[in-house]
Hints:
By secondary structure, the protein is α+β, with helices and mostly antiparallel strands. The protein is 28% helix and 35% strand. It has one domain: CATH 3.30.1330.50. The chain is built from 5 helices and 7 strands, in the order E-E-E-E-H-H-H-E-H-E-H-E. Helix 1 packs parallel to helix 3 and helix 3 (78-90) runs parallel beside helix 4 (114-125). The chain is globular and about 55 Å long.
Amino acid sequence: MPVTETRVGIGFDVHRFEEGRPLVLGGVRIDHPRGLTGWSDADALLHAIADAVLGAAALGDIGRHFPPSDPAWRDADSRELLRAAVTLVARDGWSVANVDGTVLAEAPRIAPHVEGMRREIAEACRTGPDRISVKATTMEGMGFVGREEGIASLAVVMLARETGA
């Protein structure tokens, strides 16, 4: 009789704001005067989710698999990075059971973009939007997020696979 094995991973990412770059979070381009700086498109939410996916499967982190020194990831769409992380864990039989992500930002407002983010994340994770949660909170003016210097994201991912009993 098959048994479902599960594992949980936690991810965190942070990027500074930069003038002249588009803001992309959860695979969705958001109208905002500043974007996030990074080697790829700097999507802090997708980076946190990818780290959680890899961590749950004990495969390290995104820096190990997608290093900023690799020109293939220069200005890359982070949905591709997340798809690649999901493909890596799928080789060992894992699939994404659910994702719970939180964006920490004073601005812009995230709520109007949550449904689009859920759809983009679900597609990249090869699952349904009903298994994806995206939330946001502010830092109430405290710290670098509160001073609107950047955005941080946290994610928890559960992976599942069937094993023989």
